[in-house]
Amino acid sequence: MNYGEFVGDVQGRTRLRSADEAEAVVANVFRAIAEVLPHRNVEEMGGSLPAELMVYLRGAHEEPDPYFDEHLFLGWVVSTIDATGSRDKTAGGLDLYAHYSGDEAAYRCESVFAALKPLIKDGHRQLILSALPEGIAELFARA
Q1: Could you report the per-residue pLDDT of 69-97, keeping only the tens digit for each?
Q2: Cα–Cα distance measured from residue 102 to residue 108, given in angstroms and rounded to the nearest whole number
Q3: What's the mean pLDDT in 6-23?
Q4: Between vectors from CA 24 to CA 18 and to CA 27, what angle results, nearest 5°?
Q5: Average of pLDDT values for 54-73?
Q6: What 3-state class would DSSP assign to 77?
Q7: The whole model's pTM is what?
Q8: Which helix (H) or strand (E) holds 123?
Q9: Considering only CA atoms, which of 87, 14, 13, 10 is closest in space to residue 50?
Q10: Which fold has domain 3-142?
């Protein structure tokens, strides 16, 4: 599968309107993976993934960031969601757009993971699964 097909797969799964939106989601999920995946393991996946995806993973640190948790991971993906709007005055000022953006970010992560998993070997799946923060690992396992 080439990069365009991968982005198209993610776009189809997430029902995003444009390939640019899907590409932003893919980039941010892969950048977040790079925060938790040890650099020594990145090159092992090189033959399985399109070169454009490897660019994001090659930003991995020698050792993963121990403080990069589920909220930070999803925060990278939330940045791809248009969460602007006015507050709901009847619910005490709850910002409904921001409230639901976490669920949408989790859905988008899971969609990228579902597109990624068939491309990589079982050993690489286990490696990524073990590196991900707990809540994100659940999304990866479910994808």
Answers
A1: 998 898 888 876 654 455 555 555 554 44
A2: 10
A3: 95
A4: 140
A5: 88
A6: helix
A7: 0.85
A8: helix 122-131
A9: 10
A10: Globin-like (1.10.490)
